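Hi F.,

I've been meaning to write this up properly since the lab meeting, where we talked about keeping a consistent format for the predictions we share between groups. The idea is simple: the sequence comes first, exactly as it goes in, then the structure tokens exactly as they come out, then a line or two of notes. No screenshots and no reformatting. I'm using this chain as the first example so we have something concrete to point to.
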Amino acid sequence: MDNTNSKEFWNNYVEYWENKVIEANSKSESCDKTMSDLLFVNYVELLQIQKGEKLLDFGCGTARLYPYFRKQYENSIYIGADVSGTTLEHAQRNNEDLQIGRDLYEFDGLNLPFKDGYFDKVVCWGVFDACRQEEILLELFRVIKPNGKILITGKNNTYFEDDEAAYVAEINARKKGHPNYFSDIHNLILQFPKRGVTIEEQRFFLRRGDFSKNIYQSELPDRFYEWMFILRKSEDFDNSMSFEKFSDMYSKVFS
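Output, unedited:
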């Protein structure tokens, strides 16, 4: 079953993700986790959010980013979008100044309820590998302004065959029915120039666990597990031009 945009599936994951964030901030030795809040916000700072700008937290979940955003960018606008209404309820309960329908929006997983060029910046953090990537990437570029920036992370489709932690994680995702898309990053990078996309920052994390430790290299390697880009949308970006297929639900190692 493809659970990519299944609201029922994601509604049942809210406590799991909340526990992963707690673990990330308390157990530095664990590699099966998201990045700590401290490192997460350091990456968000790469977007250089300015006064008055609108930020979309795509796949915001329980709005983990919001407390930092409120403190650091009080004169800018935060909007979160997620496929799970349950996670948004948690976000609203945990942040009394966030409201569903005003700051938080439930959507169908493919079509964001915002007009073209509405946002200045987008954060797509730890979410892209659970999306139909060609469609979502185009949608994210639709809702940002020309010269707007996207912070995006994901998994590469060719990791090291001896990266046992990565292989086990992929197998476990299959068993759980968890969406787990892998990107052919070498293919995707080749598509950017002709679509008017510039990579402003790139980081490649060779093995599973390197991301949470912030161990990376900036030059594109042949094999690696995870990646991070800061992407800029040019003035001449053509939103009618779809991305060629660059993702699959299985890595090349697994298949």
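Notes:
The chain has a mean pLDDT of 93.
The longest strand covers residues 144-155.

If this format works for you, I'll send the rest the same way.

G.
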